Amino acid sequence: MTFRRILVHASTYTAALNNLCTVFEQIAKANLRLNPAKCSLFRRQTSFQEHVVSERGVSTDPAKVEAVEKWPSPTSSAEVRSFLGLASYYNRRVC
């Protein structure tokens, strides 16, 4: 099994350390390994599943908003459905 990302949240530095210890213990118990080169600790903001997660909450990735704004005008019903699927996905998560 491959994980792309594990997010560990805390409101204080001490809580973050405690939460990380708990997560690391569970990873070790499951005989899983982490690649240190791919680990980022104590970040205030990160991209996760096409969103930006920060201390202010979850917001849409600006690159995705730009992609919607620059989407070419659809010329077929399939292209309209494709665009509406993308736009409604973000509408549910942003509004």
UniProtKB/TrEMBL annotation:
UniProt-recorded name of the protein: Uncharacterized protein
Organism this protein belongs to: Aldrovandia affinis
